[in-house]
Amino acid sequence: MGLILAATLMVGCSDHPSDDAASATHSASASATLPPDSLPTKMKGAINKDLAFSVQDATDLGRTVDLQHADVWRVCLTRKGKLENSVTFGAVPRGEKCPTHWDAHVPTPQTPKVIGDDFQHAYKELLKKGYNHEFIDVLYGSDQGAVNQQDIQRVHGQVCHQYPKPGQPLDASENVKLYVALKKCPRT
Q1: How far is 95 from 38, CA to CA, in rounded Å?
Q2: Residue 164: its pLDDT value, please?
C-alpha cells in the first residue's frame, strides 16, 4: 500500500520502495488534464484539503498501486483512513470496471501480448494491466543487461520476447521480463 502524506514536503513509501517519490508529486500536479476519477486528481484533492492518504487496489487482486504511474489508475472507492485526517483510496487500472465494494472478487486479468510491439507501447500496456514498474525487468540490446528504472525512457525498439507469456493470469508479485531489440527483432 502506498502512503503519501500531504504537508510542506511529500514523502512516499510503499511495500515496494520507490526510487522517486517526486514522480508521485509530478503525477499529482498533472491532474489538470486528467478525468475527475483519476488517481492524480484525487491525490491532488487530498493534498489541497490537508489530508494524508493511502492508496490500495480496490479489488482482491492485491496489486501494489504504482504511484510513479498514477495516471493509469482511477479511484473507485474512498473511506476514512487509519490516521486522523486521512483517507484511503481504492483504485483499479483505468479501463477496468470499478468494483462495488472493497476487496471485491474480480476475474484475474491476463498478461497482454506485447511481442512485436514498440517497447514504449508495450510498457504502458503492462502498466495499464496493473503490473508495477518496479517488477518489469527490461533487457535491452545485445548485452541483455537489465535497464535501471531511471533509464527506461531511453529504451526504444521492438519487444522480441516476454515473460510471463501472453494470456497467463496476472500475478502482481511476479517479475515481468521484456527482451527488447535495439531496433527490430532478428528473424528466427
Answers
A1: 11
A2: 96
